[in-house]
Design brief:
With 571 residues, the chain is an all-alpha fold. The chain contains 22 helices and two strands. It has a two-stranded antiparallel ribbon.
């Protein structure tokens, strides 16, 4: 490649349209499908098993859960780098590649460190801290870049289509990883590296695959050109005091403190003067609080309280929810493009409230309708005869299938609702990146919202610890038993109601009232349901009563009036 053509492909473009734009958007979609492989393999039951084998205790798990939220403070420095250098593409490429490839350092822990040991725990926490800090540096660059690349008129539909394809990949990857872990994991043996050596090797290979696919996701963006912003970037930080020499440690510490103060005041506090931004940040922080206050306790209640297996819990949380999101992604995208983001956020947040309610009414001995058990076991017997497993039974009478189905309803509602929230939030973030200050708003929004996530985890832990006596003496109401985990669920519901309150006052020009959206959605659902239910009757010739009535005869053609305007037939 000549230097002329290379410089043309590297330099930012004034605009990208038509064929070049379609190719760039296609690359962005394909890249996230590779990235979803990394996202699916970087979490789940295998990560928890790996951490337990290398020596994690409960406190170390808490630190690992707080690292992604604490690392978002790195977005403040990312905003400074973007708006002082004007570079976004290569800042994203360099930092995001380090973020993804750092998982190779986790895969080699069993090879270079004794297990279990404190050194292995410290190594993993340090690598994760560095990895998530690099991710925080790359996030504002990607958002502001995509804000200039993706046209506003198709953002909702494009993001929905992109997310739908990626979530389909996630469902497949999570299922395959769960089956592999269930195959190699021996429940009869202790969870130690010596007893479960094959599982440890398998998880290390999973980390390698995750790092490779995650790096491919980032490398594909080399083909996408950067777009010059419509507005020239403004200085994100006004701090002109010269930095002292390194050997003057006292002055350097004083300068660092003043710089940090100026950074916090100008990057975090000044964007809060915008009323729209302030409303959205309070909504997002409260919503993140509601998501983390009961996050781990859903898993504990599912596995320890209800008796779900690891594969069943993984399938419930990481497959059922994404699949429901895939089904409704286009619906949310059309609503965003037609009615705006605020009414969609309100509807989706109320759906997130409803998704927690089924978990309050689940218990281990929940009955299951007999015809469901008979039907599933009949299918199991048929499959057993075909595969040589006579008497195959899929549902044991003691299995918590009833509670699994009720919890699955909550996961279906939650997966669809959280996808709608994510699509609308991404659209709002891209809109903030269009305004003056650009990456300052993106960085401040991410940092302030994730403060809610940190507080949610801490408050949820305190609630569960204060009410731990309910594990031995739960509150009983008929067959239902409420313990400290249910208290965190109630806190999540309350926080989501408060989030809707903050959202009501957020202005958005051009958005429709939420009641109008509800009427339109209800009319569409009724029309589609009526058509679907009445179609078999129409096939056999049935018509509703109002359609069978004989219409009145239409009046014939009127004759022109004669005799001075009088009709001769009227006499």
């Amino acid at each position: 490649m000549s230097w002329r053509s290379r410089s043309y492909s590297v330099l930012p473009a004034l605009s990208i349209r038509r064929r070049a734009l379609r190719g760039a958007l296609r690359t962005v979609t394909v890249a996230w499908m590779f990235g979803m492989v990394w996202a699916s393999l970087a979490s789940g039951a295998h990560v928890k098993v790996f951490c337990r084998m290398i020596g994690f205790n409960d406190f170390a798990f808490g630190v690992m859960g707080a690292i992604p939220f604490l690392a978002t403070f790195g977005q403040l420095f990312a905003a400074v780098l973007i708006e002082r250098s004007g570079l976004r593409k290569y800042q994203f490429l360099h930092t995001a590649v380090i973020h993804r490839l750092s998982w190779l350092l986790l895969a080699v822990i069993p090879l270079i460190l004794p297990l279990p040991s404190t050194w292995a725990v410290v190594w993993m926490l340090a690598v994760l801290s560095m990895s998530w800090f690099m991710a925080a540096l790359s996030a504002p660059a990607w958002l502001t870049w995509m804000g200039d690349l993706i046209p506003r008129r198709i953002r909702g539909r494009f993001l929905a289509s992109r997310e739908r394809r990626a979530l389909a990949v996630q469902a497949i990857v999570v299922t395959v990883a769960g089956l592999l872990l269930d195959t190699f994991y021996n429940r009869a043996l202790p969870e130690t590296p010596d007893a479960q050596g094959s599982v440890l090797t398998l998880i290390s290979l999973i980390f390698v695959v995750a790092a490779v696919f995650g790096a491919v996701d980032i490398f594909l963006f080399i083909r996408v050109r950067e777009v010059l912003p419509a507005q020239p970037p403004k200085s994100v930080l006004e701090f002109s005091e010269p930095r002292p020499r390194l050997w003057r440690l006292g002055r350097l510490a004083h300068w660092s403190g003043r710089y940090a103060r100026a950074l916090g005041r100008q990057v975090l506090l000044e964007p809060l003067r915008d009323r729209v931004f302030r409303r959205y940040v309070f909504y997002g922080a409260m919503l993140m609080f509601s998501a983390t206050v009961g996050n781990w306790y859903f898993w504990l209640h599912a596995m320890e309280g209800l008796g779900f297996s690891k594969l069943g819990a993984n399938f419930l949380f990481m497959v059922v929810g994404p699949v429901s999101g895939v089904v409704t992604a286009r619906f949310w995208g059309r609503l965003i493009d037609r009615y705006g983001r605020r009414p969609v956020l309100m509807l989706a947040t109320m759906g997130a409230v409803c998704s927690v309610i089924p978990w309050l009414f689940t218990y281990r001995e929940m009955p299951l309708p007999g015809f469901v058990t008979w039907t599933i076991n009949a299918l199991a017997g048929l499959a057993g005869r075909l595969t040589g497993h006579e008497g195959w039974v899929w549902i044991d009478p003691a299995a918590p299938v009833g509670s699994y189905l009720v919890a699955g309803i909550g996961c279906v509602i939650g997966g669809s609702s959280w996808l709608g929230i994510g699509l609308a939030q991404t659209g709002i973030m891209l809109a903030f990146s269009d305004s003056g200050g650009r990456s300052r708003f993106v960085a401040a929004c991410a940092v302030l919202i994730n403060v809610g996530g940190v507080l949610g985890g801490l408050v949820g832990g305190m609630i569960a610890q204060w009410l731990i006596f309910l594990q031995d003496s739960p509150l009983e109401w008929g067959p239902l038993r409420f313990n400290n985990w249910h208290a965190t669920f109630m806190a999540a519901i309350l926080a989501r109601f408060i989030a809707v309150f903050w959202l009501r006052g957020m202005p958005e020009p051009g958005s429709a009232p939420v009641l109008n959206v509800l009427r339109q959605v209800g009319a569409n659902v009724y029309s589609n349901a009526a058509t679907l239910l009445l179609y078999p009757l129409r096939v056999v010739g049935w018509r509703p009563s109002y359609a069978r009535r004989t219409p009145p005869p239409s009046p014939g053609p009127q004759r022109p009036a004669e005799d001075g305007g009088r009709d001769p037939n009227s006499e």
